[in-house]
UniProtKB/TrEMBL annotation:
<dbReference type="GO" id="GO:0000062">
    <property type="term" value="F:fatty-acyl-CoA binding"/>
</dbReference>
<feature type="repeat" description="ANK">
    <location>
        <begin position="28"/>
        <end position="60"/>
    </location>
</feature>
<dbReference type="InterPro" id="IPR002110">
    <property type="entry name" value="Ankyrin_rpt"/>
</dbReference>
<keyword id="KW-0446">Lipid-binding</keyword>
<protein>
    <submittedName>
        <fullName>Uncharacterized protein</fullName>
    </submittedName>
</protein>
<dbReference type="InterPro" id="IPR036770">
    <property type="entry name" value="Ankyrin_rpt-contain_sf"/>
</dbReference>
<keyword id="KW-0040">ANK repeat</keyword>
<dbReference type="Pfam" id="PF12796">
    <property type="entry name" value="Ank_2"/>
</dbReference>
């Protein structure tokens, strides 16, 4: 999730190659895909989706990953 928060595709790719669960959740129920959208890292989110991330996983509040995008701050 830190790789997604920091928009680090290289580390995300490495971790996927090591077999990490792409849909693992943190204590709030957010997946890596939620985090990508939360921080507006759309390219990395698309990479995760292309590598099997499940877009239908809800967090503890019932929020889908793409819904985090609507609330994400945008760059000036």
């Amino acid at each position: 999730m830190i790789a997604c928060q920091n928009n680090n595709r290289r580390i995300a790719k490495y971790l996927l190659g090591c077999g990490v669960n792409i849909d693992a959740k943190n204590v709030k129920g957010n997946t890596a895909l939620h985090v990508c959208y939360q921080f507006n890292h759309i390219s990395l989110a698309e990479f995760l989706i292309a590598n099997g991330a499940d877009e239908s996983v809800k967090n503890n509040d019932g929020v889908l990953p793409h819904m985090m995008r609507a609330a994400a701050p945008t760059d000036p």
